[in-house]
Amino acid sequence: MNEAELKEAKKQADKKAIKFILSLFILYILFSQGNLFMNSVMSPGGRYYNASIAEHFNYIQGLKNALIIPAVWIIKLFGFYAIHNDMDVMVVNGPLLRINYSCLGLGVMSFLAAFVLSFPASWKETFKMLVIGIITVYILNILRIAGLGLLFGYFQSQRNYFEYHHEIFNVIVYIIIFVIVFFWIRKNTKTNKLQATNISKKANDTLANQA
Question: What's this model's pTM, rounded to 2 decimal places?
Answer without folding.
Answer: 0.81
